[in-house]
Description:
The complex is a heterodimer.
Chain A: E1 2-10, E2 19-26, E3 31-35, H1 42-49, H2 52-57, E4 60-67, E5 70-71, H3 78-81, E6 85-88, H4 101-110, H5 116-129, H6 145-158, E7 163-167, H7 175-190, E8 194-198, E9 211-216, E10 219-224, H8 226-229, E11 247-248, E12 256-267, E13 270-281, E14 285-290, H9 296-301, E15 311-316, E16 319-320, H10 326-329, E17 333-336, H11 349-359, H12 365-375, H13 391-403, E18 409-413, H14 421-436, E19 440-444, H15 448-454, E20 457-462, E21 465-471
Parallel strand pairs in A: 3-8, 3-9, 6-7, 7-8, 14-19, 14-20, 17-18, 18-19
Antiparallel strand pairs in A: 1-2, 1-4, 4-5, 9-10, 11-21, 12-13, 12-15, 15-16, 20-21
Chain B: H1 13-16, H2 19-35, H3 39-55, H4 59-63, H5 66-83, E1 89-94, E2 104-107, H6 108-134, H7 137-146, H8 151-179, H9 188-194, H10 197-220, H11 238-261
Antiparallel strand pairs in B: 1-2
Helix pairs in contact in B: 2-6, 2-11, 3-6, 5-6, 7-8, 8-10
Amino acid sequence: xxxxxxxxxxYPVGTRPALRGVTLSVGAGELVxxxxxxxxxxxxxxxxxxxxxxxxxxxxxxxYLALAGRPVTEYAGVSELNRHxxxxxxxxxxxxIFTSVEEELASxxxxxxxxxxxxxxxxxxxxxxxGISHLRERPPxxxxxxxxxxxxxxxxxxxxxxxxxxxxxTSELDVGATSQVIGxxxxxxxxxxxxxxxxxxxxxxxxxxxxxxxxxxxxxxREGTFDEIYPDQQGSMKALxxxxxxxxxxxxxxxxxxxIDSLRKKYGEIEALSGVSLTLHEGExxxxxxxxxxxxxxxxxxxxxxxxxxxxxVLVKNLDASTAPVIHLVQQAGLVFQNPDTMLFADSVxxxxxxxxxxxxxxxxxxxxxxxxxMVGLSGSEQAYPRHLSRGERQRLAVACILAMRPGIxxxxxxTxxxxxxxxxxxxxxxxxxxxxxxxxxxxxxNMRIAxxxxxxxxxxxxxxxxxxxxNLKGRAS
Amino acid sequence: xxxxxxxxxxxxxxxxxxxxxxxxxxxxxxGLCVISSHIPFLCFLIAILVIGAFFSGLISETKSQxxxxxxxxxxxxxxxxxxxxxxxxxxxxxxxxxQNDPGFGVxxxxxxxxxxxxxxFVVMITAFQLFVVTTKPSxxxxxxxxxxxxxxxxxxxxxALRFIPSLQLEAKRIHEAQLxxxxxPGTGISGKIRSLKPIMIPLVANSLxxxxxxxxxxxxxxxxxxxxxxxxxxxxxxxxAICAFLVLVILVVFALLHFFILP
Lengths: 478, 263
């Protein structure tokens, strides 16, 4: 179905090639999993295989690429290629354009199918397949991250092409939703579709992937079956909080830093938190787990005043978080958001950190800046332009910005999204070292592997309630 | 969060109208309100729009625009009464200094022009709002393509509309992220302007980063391959016939007012 020989490519603005001599052949009905560290050229390879690179991007291209038996260059642009290939891009939000989920799915079909009934029928089937029928009339931009990813996948599936390319389609999905997506892909495979998928969380593909390709620096570094490449288990897919290794949580002797009592919060008609009570102690490394939409992020936003309770109380280091000004709360509990790009704006790393310090009127910033940069492993980058750093570095810079304000509690919302395994571990090692210096770490995540490997306490949430509170004996923070 | 200029799903007569009919109606209404400077006629157009909004159950959406429209009208009237010096002096600000100097103040001509301008804006904004919130974006594309507008321009409009709620959401997210760093929206005009930087830079940079994927998605769905939409494929229903009748009524009123009653 796809044949690539010695494919090399350099972006128009790039100096180093993004792809170097990639040779690959994918047969019809095959499911190929591509993995590797960030910036290894996985996304570029996706763009190449879908024909986007040759037809839309410019840059210098060498080698041969054929799709469905025809050289890609012979196709009359992406508008012809889209009859054979559909693609799910890694940013779900920016590929949802229309104002209802139904219209989103229909939009690709209107250009090729005349019959309205046929379009409606196909849209209905795809919505059922992906479990998004209940979202039919909802505007895509208002959905949660996980729901958006499902809609983006559904929009690509609706096109019913022979080849489907998915670039990190499960990065925002919880365990249940990820295995659901993998199940759908398996079904498509048996129908004879060719599927190419890029992902960081791998274990779920063990039984589905025909082949695994590991990329490094634009080259294919290893290739083989899943068991050949990864003989060991990679972060269990089973829901961790049913793990028998977890012991019920017993409070440690350290002082209380956060006390939440019967916290309730509503968004319009939907109750996001329905009576959460929790006590967190100093020096704990807490992972809050739960499915998409279980209220994890809503909960932690109450700790620094971004959200205020509808009822119930939240005490953070004896400050009443339902009334205390945000500026006081953020010096006790620093929250690092999932996407560092929502905060980076300054012209240099130093200015970026300075921003927070100036806001709280801190003195002697220079030493603090050196200090936090060495903590996050970014010493010597003071003058770098923040947005030119790699994703992992940007994430660590975001942590540094919060650290500089010296909060005792550090809250991370999905700290490993968009990071590869090595970068995720770097991030977690950083958190371990902070925990050692007396910080309390609260991490909202759906990444079971890092929760299991690092956290000392695991809190499970479902439908706005805490459903489990465990001491994790295996966690390196214990 | 209120969403500006976004399609509101519904089942009203306006929702069921053919996009082409709606577009023609909007062009006609906007065109006539520009040509006419007759206050009763402009009020008549507003009345038609309000009735349309009422029958589509969109009266609350239309109402929510009223404070903005009043503010806009106030500034327009202020601007024209201070700049257009024509007709009878209603309120003298600087008295006449001699024979050839009428003085400076609010004149009947300036006030009239301001009111006409305000009414025109009310008509245009309300008509456009009703059109956009009752038309699915994909129908909007079809409608505009049926008018043989180049597909690239149609998609530009689609994307511009699409970005409004995204920008609102993104701005909120960025605002929260900066609050976590003790961000303090400044006081005074210079403070306000300086405090825009931490919000605007990530907002613009992140939005630009999104455009590439958005464009590629449209391409992959074959949108740019649609050159124009064959008019005969559009289905016209009873509502469209009623609209044709409405067009006739508007034109008759226009002609009567402008050529007979007020020649």
